Amino acid sequence: MSSLPKGFFKHTLTGLQARFQHAFSTAPESPLAAEDIILLERAADAIVQRGMAVPAVLFLESLGPVNFLGSQAVHFFTPLLEVVFPVRDVQRVALLLERRETLSCLAQLIEKRAETGRP
Q1: By the 8 A CB rule, do 102 and 67 touch?
Q2: What is the pLDDT of residue 22?
Q3: Is the confidence at residue 8, as pLDDT, over 80?
Q4: What is the DSSP string of 4-34?
Q5: By the 8 A CB rule, do 97 and 70 touch?
Q6: CA distance linking residue 105 with residue 37, whole number of Å
Q7: 60 and 107 in contact (C-beta within 8 Å)?
């Protein structure tokens, strides 16, 4: 029977601890990049132009706790979404959904545009 290398368990536990700290982190993330905000503004404009501001905000607010699962769904469906949308935008949306504040930022953008009547 082969023995485990010295420090194997310590190394394994340290790695596991680091992954758990990242998974359950409540520390604020870095602010959204300018191109990410532009993408969210384009989405908000499209939603308001179609008269879907209220349902969209309700939908976004209800999905807040599961936005990470949504990002994983986008990653999964990327091959299908690439047929309709640019590949770069699909990847950026998936990465944006992994961030906790993205949905609330999009909801605020939609509300502002709906209030001002600006599509």
Answers
A1: yes
A2: 55
A3: no
A4: PPTTHHHHHHHHHHHHHHHHT--SPPPPPPH
A5: yes
A6: 9
A7: yes
Tokens of 77: 């469906």
Provide the CA 72 distance to its chain's centre, in angstroms.
9
Backbone angles phi, psi at 69, to 5 degrees: -65, -35
Structure tokens at 114: 């709906």
CA 35 distance to own-chain centroid? 14
List the structure tokens of 98: 């992994």
Task: Give 112-119's long-range contacts (Cβ < 8 A, gap of 24+).
Answer: 112/44, 113/44, 113/45, 113/48, 113/53, 114/48, 114/53, 114/54, 118/48, 119/45, 119/48, 119/49
pTM of the model: 0.67
pLDDT confidence bin for 49, thresholds 50/70/90: very high
pLDDT at 114: 92
